Amino acid sequence: MKTQYYTATSIDGYLADEDNSLDWLFQFGEIEEIDGVDEDYTQFIDQVGALAMGSTTYEWIIEHENVLENPEKWPYEIPAWVFSSRELPKIDGANVHFVQGDVAPVHADMVEAADGKNVWLVGGGDLVGQFHDNDLLDEIILSVAPVTLGSGAPLLPRRITTPPLKLASVQKYDDVFAVLTYEVQ
């Protein structure tokens, strides 16, 4: 069982632009259209038993997938924990737990719910940083897109220098993505 941060990023380390837009990422098409990416994502998600995200990520999914009006569009069947200090709308039928505060006790609940499978930290970067700060992050999987944004939501707003991350694998998908997998030591 691992706690993994799996995300797409620009070359200069941003998850979204300054308007929280992912248009820079969607210009490459749907995941199914990039040779090999869909298979890898399917293999990844099959090994995930629980996930966590911050309120901005949750609100982005609600807005862009219109899940309040169409709850069947909620993309996850596994239990999800949403970290937020504010009240957020609940999606009918979705297995979503709203939490706040320290990530450590919530992580224990997530591990239990995952039942031997991995825990996926969907984003954002600061939330993932909190898991790292509590020694609860095992792996970072980055799909690096060939764009720079200059500003926006940072990938992981933490200084991680000693010990450094350990590069575990590198994969190339078409002429678009380099997927870098790092172990957190």
From TrEMBL:
Domain of life from the UniProt record: Archaea
Residues annotated as domain Bacterial bifunctional deaminase-reductase C-terminal: 7-176
Entry's Gene Ontology BP terms: riboflavin biosynthetic process
Protein name: Dihydrofolate reductase family protein
InterPro entries, alphabetized: DHFR-like_dom_sf, RibDG_C, Riboflavin_Biosynth_HTPR
Molecular-function annotations in GO: 5-amino-6-(5-phosphoribosylamino)uracil reductase activity
Pfam families given in the database record: RibD_C
Organism name: Haladaptatus pallidirubidus
